[in-house]
Amino acid sequence: MTDLLAEVLEAHGGAARWQRLRIVTATIVSDGELFAAKGLPQDLQPRRMTVALHDEHASVLPFGAADQRTDFTPGRIAIERADGTVVAERLAPRTAFAGHALETPWDPLDRAYFNGYALWTYLTTPFFTLMPGMRVAEADPWDESPTERWRCLRVTFPEDIASHSTVQHFYFGEDRLLRRHDYHVDIAGGFAAAQYVHDIREADGIRFPTRRRAYLRRPDGRPDHDHLMVSIDLSDLRYV
């Protein structure tokens, strides 16, 4: 473990505290250009997200209908009714995105898969680095402004974890709290994103950002504020 990673984990609540927890639930409201580009404009209805902390499993309720939820793992995405009846299902869901560009339409299972892996990543940052197979190294810092430099962790995800891209970069301020998350959205043509996080709160001993704004990332690394691809507001987080 790098010294920076140890400091980052401690700043967000500590590895010992994290290991005692099992799941997190949160109310989410999401929007952004990506969903419209995919033919699935996002409404602003609050939804309840449930994420496992030590294996990649997530669900959101409601989805598509009041009595429906998603069930996500890397090897399967499903839409189910509250009684467990399967409405739609896809195995090996990542393969369905072969050849996709940014403008390629998504079906509801595509949207559910994206939601599952993305929110799992966000709600377990930075503690997913403790999972087997994660490779973490310090990378070049980012100068956000002439007076603000953020240190960076480059994370290489193992093949059995679904996320935006294999290699992602996470930037931290002097307090070692997350400021920005860079990645490529491989399932949407591989576009580059710079996601800024804001309004860090604490729940059950864990510190987390409650606002996320993902912009197109320009070749110089700066965000293109004219293109807000995804926005996520989080509230009522509970870790158990």
Would you summarize the structure shown here?
This protein is α+β, with helices and mostly antiparallel strands and 240 residues long. The chain has helices at 3-11, 15-19, 33-37, 108-124; strands spanning 23-31, 47-52, 58-61, 68-73, 76-81, 86-91, 135-145, 148-156, 167-172, 178-185, 191-203, 206-217, 223-239.
How do the strands and helices of this protein lay out in sequence?
Layout: H1 3-11, H2 15-19, E1 23-31, H3 33-37, E2 47-52, E3 58-61, E4 68-73, E5 76-81, E6 86-91, H4 108-124, E7 135-145, E8 148-156, E9 167-172, E10 178-185, E11 191-203, E12 206-217, E13 223-239
Antiparallel strand pairs: 1-2, 1-13, 2-3, 4-5, 5-6, 7-8, 8-9, 9-10, 10-11, 11-12, 12-13
Main sheet overview: 10 strands, antiparallel
Strand content: over 45%
Strand order of the biggest β-sheet: 3-2-1-13-12-11-10-9-8-7
For the record, the CATH class is Mainly Beta
Count of separate structural domains = 1
For the secondary structure, the number of strands is: 13
How would you name the CATH homologous superfamily? Lipoprotein localisation LolA/LolB/LppX
Low-confidence stretches: none
Structural class: alpha+beta
Helix-strand pattern, N to C? HHEHEEEEEHEEEEEEE
Query: How many helices does DSSP assign?
Result: 4
Radius of gyration: 17 Å
Q: What's the mean pLDDT score?
A: 97
Overall shape: globular
Named at the architecture level, the CATH assignment is: Clam
